[in-house]
Amino acid sequence: MPVPFIDLKRFEDSIPEIFSQKVQSLVANTQFIGGKEVEIFEETLKKDNQVAYAIGCANGTDAIQLALRAVGVGSGDKVLLPDLTFWATFEAIINVGAEPITVDISLEDLQMDFFLFQEAVEKFQPKAAILVHLYGWTSQYLESFRKYAKEKNVFLIEDGAQSYRVKVNGESIYKNALVATVSFYPAKVFGAAGDAGAVLTQNPEIAQKVRSLGNHGREFHYSHQYVGWNSRLGNLQAAYLNVNFPYLGERIQSRRLIADSYRRDLAEKFEVHTTPGLVSSQGVLWKESATSIRIEENGYLNVILMDPKKRNSFLEHLKKHQIGFGTVYPDPISVQKGAQGYLRYKVGGDNAKRVCSSVVNLPLFPYMTSAEYNEIIEVVNRF
Ligand SMILES: *Cc1c(COP(=O)(O)O)cnc(C)c1O
Question: What's the average model confidence in pLDDT over 154-176?
Fold first, then answer.
């Protein structure tokens, strides 16, 4: 039985119908830009994450650019980012005219290494840093990152594109961020019917600036206080997100159960990675952390680290048996062709590279059937 890496069609039966009705009404009333659906969605984001401000925007990459600009990052400013992330994190820094510096990751949680981050802050005195919550969890040192950045006057932007509904000590991961960004790209855990994003913050000045920058730097309709751009969230996207929101809890629960099952069922054969401090969907601590953090994942990705020499034949085996897979990510930022000419400094060693050459992601999507899951385990065990 073939099992895809991800199946976006696995949403609840009622969604296409409810959305179609909304679309008919929005089109009939030509409510395309701004309007009620966007307002409802932003209210939902605020409540769901206990933040004071939520600003919808065009996509997750723009959300990072808006956040960088809003805290004042511009031409020549140094900005730290982890060497292991999606390329958009890097692009956002370049696109606002700033200078990127990559920091290597920790092999414990696969996120930016806190101790190297401290080293990088001391050495380069960056204006800002982007902490990426990768794979659907976060660093066990999250609170240390926030505290240290604040002490050193480094604006810490949290790229939360992959971390919607990740919880830290029982609360939304976005709640205690200076500013956090979200992507609603369809394949993320909370997906729109196209591109969409948001910036979340507790800070009124940052919120005001983000809203203005993403709407042509407007103060009033024809009064422009900044040179921004157009990064508004469309009403149709907001409507789709509103229709999906009530099911999000169930989807995340389904993902978390599968993520747990992989860890349990493949433990003998592979290193199924998690972060220290992770609690299972049953509330059990998987792995003690060095801090007292408790992290609830959103089940975005399954992460297996294996011997790089065996990886190709393992991927061939999966392909042959029609099991979908990912390798998120095949290369670190610092070796990408597009990074050359922009990247002058790199802090730390080659942990990111090592992870990139050994990572495999098995299928993980909400409502995977047990027949599909069992098929994956059986195929994997035959390797
Ligand atoms: C998806 C993603 C983005 C970009 O989001 P888009 O909505 O596709 O622009 C940025 N950072 C990370 C870590 C991502 O996974």
Answer: 98
- Which residues fall within 8 angstroms of residue 318, CB to CB, at 6 or more apart? 324, 325, 379, 380
Token reading at 116: 């190297």
Spatial separation of the C-alpha atoms in residues 32 and 23, rounded to whole Å: 10
pLDDT tens digits, one per residue of 48-107: 999 999 999 999 999 999 999 999 999 999 999 999 999 999 999 999 999 999 999 999
Neighbours of 381 (CB within 10 A): 11
- Spatial CB neighbours of 150, under 8 Å, sequence gap ≥ 6: 156, 178
% residues pLDDT > 70 (the chain) = 100
Q: Say if CB 134 and CB 162 are below 8 A apart.
A: yes
Tens digits of residue pLDDT in 218-228: 999 999 999 99
Q: Which atom of ligand 1 is nearest to the CA of 132?
A: 13
Least confident range of 218-222, 244-248, 258-262, 328-332 = 218-222
Residues with CB under 6 A from ligand 1: 59-61, 85-86, 88-89, 132, 159, 161-162, 183, 185, 195, 197
Q: How much is the pLDDT for 287?
A: 86
Which of 81, 157, 162 maximizes ligand 1 atoms within 8 Å of its Cβ, making it the mutation to test the pocket? 162
In this predicted structure, what is the pLDDT of residue 359? 98
Pocket test for ligand 1, best of 89, 138, 329 (most atoms within 8 A of CB): 89
| Residue 345 CB contacts under 8 Å (≥ 6 apart), including other chains | 101, 102, 124
Q: Which atom of ligand 1 is nearest to the CA of 185?
A: 7
Enter the pTM of the model: 0.98
Listed in sequence order, the DSSP H helices in 71-135 are 87-95, 114-124
Cβ contact 23:32 at 8 Å: no
Q: How far apart are CA 249 and CA 253, in angstroms?
A: 6
332 alpha carbon to ligand 1 midpoint, in Å? 15
Give the atom of ligand 1 at the shortest distance from the alpha carbon of 162.
15
Q: Residue 259 Cα, ligand 1 centroid: separation in angstroms?
A: 21
